[in-house]
Amino acid sequence: MNHMLNIQPFIFNWPGQTDKAVATEKAINAAGYRTTVINSDPNYTPFNWINLGNDAYFSEQWSMAMKLFRGDIMFHIQADATYDNWSALINDAERYFEKYHWGIYSPRFQDNGHYIPLETWQCEDQNIKAIPNPDCTCWFLHKDIIDKFRNLNLNVKVNHLGWGIDCVMCAISWSSGRIVLRDFGHEVFHAPGRGYSSEEAVTQMNKMFEQLSPELMNAVLQQYNNRESLLEYLEK
Known about the structure:
By secondary structure, the chain is of the alpha/beta class. It has a single domain (about 5-235), classed as Spore Coat Polysaccharide Biosynthesis Protein SpsA, Chain A (Alpha-Beta Complex), CATH 3.90.550. The protein is about 35% helix and about 20% strand. It is built from 7 helices and 9 strands. Strands 1, 2, 3, 4, 5, 6, 7, 8 and 9 form a 9-stranded mixed beta sheet that branches. Strand 1 (about 5-15), helix 1 and strand 2 form a beta-alpha-beta unit. Helix 4 (about 145-150) crosses helix 5 (about 165-175) and helix 5 (about 165-175) crosses helix 7 (about 215-225). It is globular and about 50 Å long.
């Protein structure tokens, strides 16, 4: 494939995941992409990683990625996500962008979360489904969506743990008329569980949501309710 898009990969790493981050970085670099690792593991701080320290959770890592992103497509991977063919996934992300002009594209996971594909949207590729929100474990985001997120000027410091940033990104994509896709032809492994309080994460998320416009908040709520009227955004 002749790569027409500048795809810029980012890995977010934290203690306990460093071996996986190193392996993923190596594999993606070998595929011809220059990977940026944003790192919170204080015990492994190579000179070519962006080392933020152990207090930096998702929001601080995300903010750094926003500052560093200069490409056409951001490819963001959480370090605890693993796969044996990153090159094929990247190639398909580009191929399906040329076909569907998605705003966000993601592989599937063994545990796909609580978002169910929107069956009212069909395409000729049986492995490709529209999804309210693919989660932020491993996903590709078009620069137009990222630019609109930047322009919101959200204070994400109130949301240290970072829950809901994926909801905002998907709300931007849908309300911009850009479809959000999941590719069931690629299954990335992601171990379940988290190392912090879900209750605290929800409290912080809601503080961030308070900064959204009513229109954007409505697009967030569409995801939670899994309303297929999300597809109406594509017709506006």
